[in-house]
């Protein structure tokens, strides 16, 4: 890559009053790129759009770090969590965020100062904060990032999912993992399912279909032995909060079809946050998702939410295999569940033991075959 292709120029000299002017052309070598921008072709970055512009979800933005608070590190495109310093220049994407254990953030209507609400690289305006965390790190947008023609670069311009759906098998089992809340153990459970299936010789595809862009879950899936792992950033979204139901369902379909194109034996899908969160609830209540799901594993932080969640899912028509997550590692919590529920506790030991993957795959395959014969 030549020096010229690594520089951007100021497209509009009319900068926002609060924007610190930078020398242009501006060298990109020292800028930290966040995880959510990993699919963007760096060579396409040529211009900076300033002035009276309204950011949209997924728009790339060049920011300066002005005050370090909750997030002191930025997850880079390679997954390394780079320490940030005041005055650092970072490339992130605008997005809404919903995280009960951290922040709610809403995309602002202008390039005024806002917040880094997620370490994966989400620019937003913090509207709510959990008492468990510090206020969000403060950033100053310097301009939206554009191509050589001055068109704003958006993550949706860099969708990497397979679009040819011909000859994809409809008989691939799909296991969906949902949970009671953030940190209920969903990602760990997905990874353990992947490990158990991989240990028994199955090729697994995995996807995280909702949430906030971050590489941690994908790296966890990869470390567990997945054949192909994707998330919603591969579908062109920084986050999925406040996404329309139609777009959610379309994204789910694209991700499932992409995994099917990779010749996997079985697919495991994580739905973020808790079952009552806006997008999660909408997905799970959808007939489309119900019909696509072969079986469900529910994760919970405690016994009471385990009982509520499994009952709610079964009433919707899901085949819930059992209960996993945080409660499964708590002997007393597990006892409370089994004393009040017919579903088994399926923890890490059970998910990864020899033969579990085989038994799971056989059960789901027989279910699909029985449904096909009707």
- The CATH architecture of the largest domain can be named as 3-Layer(aba) Sandwich
Q: Let me know the largest β-sheet.
A: 6 strands, parallel
Mean pLDDT: 92
CATH class membership of the largest domain:
Alpha Beta
Helix content: 25-40%
What class, by secondary structure content? alpha/beta
Q: Indicate how many domains the architecture comprises.
A: 2
Low-confidence stretches: 1-7, 11-22
> How many extended strands?
19
CATH superfamily of the largest domain: P-loop containing nucleotide triphosphate hydrolases
Q: Give me the CATH fold name of the largest domain.
A: Rossmann fold
Describe the protein's architecture and organization.
With 374 residues, the protein is α/β, with parallel strands linked by helices. The protein folds into two domains: 155 residues, no CATH class; 200 residues, P-loop containing nucleotide triphosphate hydrolases (Rossmann fold). It has nine helices and 19 strands. The strands form three sheets. Strands 16-15-17-14-18-19 form a six-stranded parallel sheet, with helices on both faces. A five-stranded mixed barrel has the order 5-8-12-11-13. The protein is globular. The protein starts with 6 loop residues before the first strand and ends with a helix. The N terminus is likely disordered.
């Amino acid at each position: 890559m030549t020096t010229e292709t690594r520089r951007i120029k100021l497209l509009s000299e009319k900068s926002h009053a609060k924007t610190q002017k930078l020398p242009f052309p501006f060298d990109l070598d020292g800028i930290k790129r966040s995880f959510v921008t990993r699919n963007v072709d760096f060579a396409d970055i040529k211009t900076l759009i300033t002035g009276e512009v309204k950011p949209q979800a997924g728009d790339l933005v060049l920011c300066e770090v002005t005050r370090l608070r909750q997030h002191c590190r930025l997850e880079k495109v390679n997954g390394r969590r780079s320490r940030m310093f005041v005055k650092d220049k970072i490339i992130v994407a605008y997005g809404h965020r919903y995280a009960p254990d951290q922040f709610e953030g809403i995309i602002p209507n202008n390039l005024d100062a806002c917040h880094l609400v997620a370490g994966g690289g989400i620019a937003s305006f913090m509207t709510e904060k959990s008492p468990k965390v510090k206020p969000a790190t403060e950033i100053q947008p310097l301009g939206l990032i554009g191509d050589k023609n001055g068109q704003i670069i958006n993550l949706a311009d860099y969708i990497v999912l397979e679009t040819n759906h011909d000859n994809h098998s409809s008989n691939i089992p799909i296991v969906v993992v949902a949970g009671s809340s953030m940190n209920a153990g969903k990602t760990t459970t997905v990874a353990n399912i992947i490990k158990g299936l991989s240990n028994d010789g199955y090729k697994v595809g995995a996807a995280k279909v909702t949430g906030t862009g971050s590489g941690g879950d994908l790296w966890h899936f990869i470390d567990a032995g997945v054949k192909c792992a994707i998330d919603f950033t591969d579908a062109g979204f920084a986050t999925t909060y406040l996404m329309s139901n139609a777009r959610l369902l379309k994204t789910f379909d694209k991700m499932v079809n992409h995994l099917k194109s990779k010749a996997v034996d079985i697919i495991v899908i994580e739905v973020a946050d808790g079952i009552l969160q806006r997008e999660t609830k909408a997905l799970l209540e959808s007939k489309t998702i119900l019909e696509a799901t072969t079986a469900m594993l529910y994760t919970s932080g405690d016994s009471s939410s385990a009982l509520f969640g499994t009952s709610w899912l079964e009433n919707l028509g899901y085949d819930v295999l059992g209960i996993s997550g945080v409660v499964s590692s708590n002997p007393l919590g597990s006892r409370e569940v089994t004393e009040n529920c017919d579903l088994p506790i399926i923890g890490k030991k059970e998910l990864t033991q020899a033969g579990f993957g085989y038994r799971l795959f056989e059960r789901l395959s027989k279910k699909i075959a029985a449904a096909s014969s009707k």
